[in-house]
Design goal:
3 helices, about 25% helix, globular
């Protein structure tokens, strides 16, 4: 897994031992998403559709899908329902790109629009936790 950060974005890249079609389903199907991130999810994978993931019963990420291009790309806005986070629901953007890579998939996540270094750091830690889980779960 490779990871980088810029002033307002986090980038994470990982190779997954599964096809882009398989990996894409783990981004847009609630029962598959909760296998790698969150306790419950409401996902309506169409432009303007709901993205809501209850991470742990307390922290809930919410936004909406901006672009859904199976099995290559999913873009959704992101923020937090709870007031303890500096990012309101929908205030940042997560773009996930999937490219065929031999017999697997190269996944690249870009989380942009984060308000400052602390938000970048916290989200980098989160994505570096969850993306390997996605790779492990989807690659089984």
């Amino acid at each position: 897994m490779a990871s980088a950060e810029t002033e307002q974005a986090v980038e994470v890249e990982v190779r997954i031992a599964a096809s882009p079609e398989t990996v894409f389903d783990f981004l847009v199907e609630p029962d598959k998403m909760v296998q790698w991130m969150g306790r419950s999810a409401i996902l309506e994978p169409r432009p303007g559709g709901t993205f809501r993931c209850d991470m742990n019963g307390r922290d809930i990420a919410r936004g909406e899908f901006v672009e859904v291009d199976p099995p290559r790309r999913a873009v959704f806005t992101w923020g937090w329902e709870a007031g303890g986070f500096p990012i309101a629901p929908g205030a940042s953007t997560v773009e996930i790109l999937l490219e065929p890579d031999r017999d697997g998939t190269l996944l690249r996540l870009i989380h942009s629009g984060l308000p400052g270094a602390e938000a970048v750091r916290r989200h980098r830690v989160g994505w570096e936790t969850f993306i390997p889980r996605l790779a492990e779960t989807a690659g089984e």
